[in-house]
UniProtKB/TrEMBL annotation:
Gene Ontology terms, MF aspect: oxoglutarate dehydrogenase (succinyl-transferring) activity; thiamine pyrophosphate binding
InterPro entries: 2oxoglutarate_DH_E1, DH_E1, THDP-binding
The family this protein is said to belong to: Belongs to the alpha-ketoglutarate dehydrogenase family.
Name this polypeptide is given: OGDHL protein
Keywords of the record: Oxidoreductase, Thiamine pyrophosphate, Transit peptide
Cofactors required: thiamine diphosphate
GO BP, sorted A to Z: tricarboxylic acid cycle
Cross-referenced Pfam families: E1_dh
The gene coding this protein: Ogdhl
Residue intervals of the Dehydrogenase E1 component domain: 2-179
Keyword Oxidoreductase in annotation: yes
GO annotations of cellular component type: mitochondrion; oxoglutarate dehydrogenase complex
């Protein structure tokens, strides 16, 4: 399995979650053994110039915090993009570390139907309107090289247009949305025959008082004989033991009982994060 994340340039530099995810990328309990980050860098964040959006030259500089290699590639050169993506996949496969592909490109039209970029970026959009679209640029190169003929190119375009038109026509006739078709491996019993989620009612999860008492006693005891325990911890264990005896619970004991009952059923529980190691909660 290889994880690929697709980002916009402004979001990559500006969203804290990107920086945070990089810092999780090599932690023992969180690593995915390397993520490939593909940044569609159209050099504008909605209507914001890069100089107003970040303090570093490249949006991808945020990846430097984990020394991830960053490939800046001209998106108008499809073969260079393919080459760089192959190198990125090989890097990830060899070193199991994050890698970033920065596709330097441009946005031909507005951010949405209502947006006219000439209002806010007139000089940039004058340049963009002069650019030959990447498809035409690459097709002309292939035809000039004799790799494909004009007829083959036009047939390929017509074929793609036909696929889009047929899908659009079919979409108008759709009456039922088959949610399960969107999942690679639908969970058995999660959807009914029509692809709709089943009722979300929870089955009863209660356990006997005897079991709760047993978990409470285990949670307030030390498993090793003659183990010298910190006096602060022994006070906590004593208080927990008294609570169990008096049929009382606080958040920590209730949580303990929940985890304990799941463990009793043979289900593995993993605790991770800043506070669980020392049992703050």
């Amino acid at each position: 399995v290889m994880s690929i994340l697709l980002h916009g340039d402004a979001a990559f530099a500006g969203q804290g979650v990107v920086y945070e995810t990089f810092h999780l990328s090599d932690l023992p309990s969180y690593t995915t053994n390397g993520t490939i980050h593909v940044v569609v860098n159209n050099q504008i964040g909605f209507t914001t110039d890069p100089r107003m959006a970040r303090s570093s030259p490249y949006p991808t500089d945020v990846a430097r915090v984990v020394n991830a290699p960053i490939f800046h590639v001209n998106a108008d050169d499809p073969e260079a993009v393919m080459y760089v993506c192959s190198v990125a996949a090989e890097w990830r496969n060899t070193f199991n570390k994050d890698v970033v592909v920065d596709l330097v490109c441009y946005r031909r039209r507005g951010h949405n139907e209502m947006d006219e970029p000439m209002f806010t970026q007139p000089l940039m959009y004058k340049q963009i309107h002069k650019q030959v679209p990447v498809l035409k640029k690459y097709a002309d190169k292939l035809i000039a090289d004799g790799t494909v003929t004009l007829q083959e190119f036009e047939e390929e375009i017509a074929k793609y247009d036909r696929i889009c038109e047929e899908a659009y026509t079919r979409s108008k006739d759709k009456k039922i949305l088959h949610i399960k078709h969107w999942l690679d491996s639908p969970w058995p019993g999660f959807f009914n025959a029509d692809g709709e989620p089943k009722s979300m009612s929870c089955p009863p999860t209660g356990i006997s008082e005897e079991m709760l008492t047993h978990i409470g006693n285990v949670a307030s005891s030390v498993p090793v004989k003659d183990f010298k325990i910190h006096s602060g911890l022994s006070r906590i264990l004593k208080a927990r033991s008294e609570m169990t005896e008096n049929r009382l619970v606080d958040w920590a004991l209730a949580e303990y009982m929940a985890f304990g009952s799941v463990l009793k059923e043979g289900i593995h529980v993993r605790l991770s994060g800043q506070d669980v190691e020392r049992g703050t909660f």
